[in-house]
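Subject: Sanity check before I submit

Could someone independently write out the structure tokens for this chain? I want to compare against mine line by line before I put it in a report. The sequence has 136 residues.
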Amino acid sequence: MVILLLLTTMALPLARVQVQRSHEAELHRDLREMRDAIDRYKGMSDMGMIAVKQDTFGYPPDLKTLVEGVKFKGATDTKYKFLRKIPVDPMTGDSEWGMRSMQDDTDSGSWGGQNVFDVYSKSQGTALDGTRYADW
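---
Independent answer below. Compare away.
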């Protein structure tokens, strides 16, 4: 009985670390997916394939635009969607992400609302490597 108790006591912290590690891998994947979608939007706007507002510098106005899609210039009904859905932040359990616009400072904690240049987790937690999730 004592041996089983000892083994269980040792296994629980390892299981917690494994769960945290899988959440961190999911966060990396989600951030990469959204940043890639932002970059594809920017690339299409730079090539003149989609219409953009002047003050956005060619970046999407919000994450919702990446999901709903944008029409190609000159096309009537053709829309290009950059994301299937806005992913859920595995650290907060919410689909609300921190955003930065091109006009915001790089370390800004609030979004100016002009465009979406970058996304980050709103979690204030610390990763296994000691960095903050919000800094990823």
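---
OP: Matches mine. For the report I'm noting this point. The CA atoms of residues 86 and 95 lie 6 Å apart.
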